[in-house]
């Protein structure tokens, strides 16, 4: 891995970490998240912060990028699944935020900056890093299946916690808004998008492997 590649991943790691740190500071200070009108106690705010898919996907990106910035590469199922979840998760974060959540927001100042970093800047940097800079782990049916464990577990846990506490991190998961049918349709659509993104990465991997093989001398 060249120094330029490591530098890119270092940049991604720093930006993702800075975005998470900024959001943490804002939450500690009582910053508003999405459409919350009141400020809950600090321990509740911190618990809710780590419950957001956005925060978890940015954290995965920061961890994966920091490792790639320090080491030549990594192999193995666990690492591949982490890398896939980071890239697909952050891509999904950007897409869902742009389509479903941005119309609900009216953020200013540091809140708007944190929002842009978490939902726009980090997704763009991470995707460019995966597609253009590399390295890209080989996607198999097994690793793709294992990569689905995290988002499905997050979804199940979020719905259960929401039913118990009455708090949902995103309005489209709240059955009190438009009913369970709308929640179910949204969950199926987002899960299908996650699977489609995994399929796109798998296709990219196969085409890249084929192209590299074709360029090799006979």
Automatic annotation (TrEMBL):
<feature type="transmembrane region" description="Helical">
    <location>
        <begin position="145"/>
        <end position="168"/>
    </location>
</feature>
<keyword id="KW-0812">Transmembrane</keyword>
<feature type="transmembrane region" description="Helical">
    <location>
        <begin position="49"/>
        <end position="69"/>
    </location>
</feature>
<keyword id="KW-1133">Transmembrane helix</keyword>
<keyword id="KW-0472">Membrane</keyword>
<protein>
    <submittedName>
        <fullName>Pr6Pr family membrane protein</fullName>
    </submittedName>
</protein>
<dbReference type="InterPro" id="IPR049713">
    <property type="entry name" value="Pr6Pr-like"/>
</dbReference>
<feature type="transmembrane region" description="Helical">
    <location>
        <begin position="112"/>
        <end position="133"/>
    </location>
</feature>
<feature type="transmembrane region" description="Helical">
    <location>
        <begin position="81"/>
        <end position="100"/>
    </location>
</feature>
<feature type="transmembrane region" description="Helical">
    <location>
        <begin position="180"/>
        <end position="204"/>
    </location>
</feature>
């Amino acid at each position: 891995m060249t120094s330029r590649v490591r530098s890119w991943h270092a940049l991604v790691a720093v930006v993702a970490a800075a975005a998470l740190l900024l959001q943490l500071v804002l939450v500690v200070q009582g910053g508003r998240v999405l459409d919350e009108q009141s400020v809950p106690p600090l321990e509740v705010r911190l618990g809710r912060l780590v419950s957001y898919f956005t925060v978890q996907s940015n954290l995965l990106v920061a961890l994966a990028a920091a490792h790639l910035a320090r080491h030549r590469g990594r192999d193995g199922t666990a690492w591949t699944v982490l890398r896939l979840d980071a890239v697909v998760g952050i891509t999904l974060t950007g897409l869902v935020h742009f389509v479903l959540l941005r119309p609900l927001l009216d953020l200013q100042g540091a809140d708007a900056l944190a929002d842009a970093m978490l939902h726009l800047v980090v997704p763009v940097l991470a995707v460019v890093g995966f597609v253009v800079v590399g390295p890209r782990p080989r996607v198999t049916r097994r690793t793709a299946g294992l990569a689905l464990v995290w988002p499905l577990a997050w979804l199940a846990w979020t719905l259960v916690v929401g039913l118990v506490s009455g708090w949902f991190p995103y309005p489209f998961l709240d059955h009190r808004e438009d009913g369970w049918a709308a929640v179910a349709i949204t969950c199926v659509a987002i899960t299908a998008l996650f699977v489609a993104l995994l399929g796109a990465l798998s296709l990219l991997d196969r085409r890249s492997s084929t192209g590299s093989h074709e360029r090799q001398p006979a």
